[in-house]
Amino acid sequence: MTIDVSPDLASLATAGPKAGHARRLAVHAVMILLSFLSIFPIYWMIVTSLRPENEIFSTSLWPSNPSLENYVFVLTRIPMIGMLINTTIVSAATALLQVVTGLFAAYALVRWRMRLSGVIHGLIALSWLVPFQVTMIPNYVLASRLGLLDTLTGLIVPNAAHAFAILLLYNAMRSFPTEILEAARIDGARSWKILWQIVVPNMGAPIASLSIIAFISAWNEYFWPLLLSRKPENSVVQIGLQMFMTQEGNLWGPLMAASALASLPILIIYLVLQRHVIESFMKSGIR
Amino acid sequence: MTDIQADLARPLAVARAPAAGRQRGPFTVQPWLYLAPALCLLMMWTYVPLVEAFQLSFYQWNMLPTSPQRYVGLTNYQRLFALPEMRAALWNTLFYILGLFPMSVIIPLFVAIWTQDLEGRARTIYRALIFVPMIVAPVVAAILWRWLLNEDQGLITLGLETIGLGRIGFLTDPNYALATLTWITGWKLIGFSTLLFSAANAGINASYIEAARIDGASRWGIIRDIRLPLLSPTILLLSMMTILFGAQWSFAYINVLTNGGPLKSTTNIFYLLWEYGFQTMSAGWSSAAGMIAFAGFAVVAAACMWLTKRFAVYDN
């Protein structure tokens, strides 16, 4: 499908208020269609999750007797609450560690002039080009040797540093005025003190962006937990969902309730910080 | 294994010359202490494993710690190239990438240009809505579409039947399954790409457009000669993302929804890696296939970088 952008539309647009009106309607129609496509599957998930069992195949846009029985079913059948707590721990720890390791590395590259800094920057940047599926076997072997299989630590540690985090903070820090760093150094401040008292307080926006993206990506991460997890109670909610689907694939009501529970924290973050979330993702790319 | 716009927008090269006034002189240990956590982690979980995977690709091993690894030279590679599975997976990888293009680049580009005069409240609301799929977890997206497309009671199936198109096995018919998975992958991207293009389009200096209009350029002429060239960095960036990561993005959907079937019609190179590694436990094959994929994508990445340098138009 293409959107018509032929010259006659240009003349339409300038032909007068009436034609302009038609064009504006068409613009809204395109955006409404796109919005509908984006949001309807999620709406349908919520509606289905609220339908009682005898109504599950109904196509009405709202259940006639909304009920929470599907949610109760999920909460009693799988350790959902535990998995949500695990996922929160993993996501928060991953975000925090990515910020800290990223800040340190970026600070080292910005403040000191090293002969190898070009090589290091390149090594960091190129690491995101290595697809995880290529290194997964050695990673798995290493994790099992370290006793990290089926643990939350095992889900956190390999993601504790990320090229994306380092480069985002590096680019933000590079625009930090060097005169201020210089002045602090002449005053005899230690590099540790300069980092925490001068640099970090001025990096609020990039740190917030990075935390949001890292948290959401860690929450949605599927592949590494899939390799590492054994028991649902030691795992994250994405794996729980996948296991539940494999076992009870056609219990649509409970399945939608479980999906809704798994998405709820992210959707709440989005509702509260909506503009900030969009801006973070837009400025820093796709994750 | 994700992607950095901030870094790609500037050509991915090495640090620029540091500003004057920073310390230089004898070797200092301090910066290395700050770099240590990040570098150790990257070494431990990315670079050393990459080298190990390269080594493993010349061995035969069933992943059991107790069983020995046997050196087999290039046999793994020879076998892989002879396998019809591998050929199918490579073709499918290409189909996934090509199928994603309309949703990750072409439609968003034209929607962004077409809807550029939207302003105010309506724009904010559309923005908020079309971004949502981006933050939905892939597993959740897979389950949502599995329900909508369900062959017995899915809403879309029922809708198609009402208008007389009959039932389609979106996930069970080998003719449709790959397209369905591509659609789900693209569903997550289409709104986000539109927002990226809209932002880039809004950043175009209005005086260029005005000047062209005074010179009598048509609307299409303005798009072709001014907007598209100035949007080329974003076009190239999103194309590069699609090429490099498109096949990886579809992994979760393949794994949750089809397991590569029906009749291997939805498997791709990354799914094959996972199957060899963790289903059939042949670490050597998986590593060899991984090396082939890695080398292939590295060449493509270099070519994309070169194209970006050569053809992207920046408005300074």
In total, the number of domains of chain A comes to 2
Number of strands of chain B: 2
Largest sheet of chain B: 2 strands, antiparallel
Q: Hey, roughly how much beta strand do the residues of chain A contain?
A: under 5%
Query: Residue-averaged pLDDT of chain B, rounded?
Result: 86
Helical proportion of chain A, percent range: over 70%
Oligomer: heterodimer
Percent helix range of chain B: 55-70%
**Given this structure, which CATH class of chain B is correct?**
Mainly Alpha
Concise synopsis of the structure shown:
Chain A has 287 residues and is an all-alpha fold.
Give structural notes.
- The complex is a heterodimer of chains A (287) and B (316).
- By secondary structure, chain A is mostly helical.
- Chain A has helices spanning 7-14, 17-50, 69-77, 80-111, 117-126, 132-145, 152-156, 163-174, 178-186, 191-199, 204-220, 223-228, 237-247, 252-284.
- Chain A folds into two domains: 7-67, no CATH class; 73-284, MetI-like fold, CATH 1.10.3720.
- Chain A is 73% helix and 0% strand.
- The model of chain B is unreliable at 1-23 (pLDDT under 50).
- Chain B contains 13 helices and two strands; from the N terminus they run H-H-E-E-H-H-H-H-H-H-H-H-H-H-H.
- Chain B has 316 residues and is mainly alpha-helical.
- In chain B, strands 1-2 form a two-stranded antiparallel ribbon.
- Chains A and B meet through helix 1, helix 2, helix 4, helix 5 and helix 6 of A and helix 1, helix 2, helix 4, helix 5 and helix 6 of B.
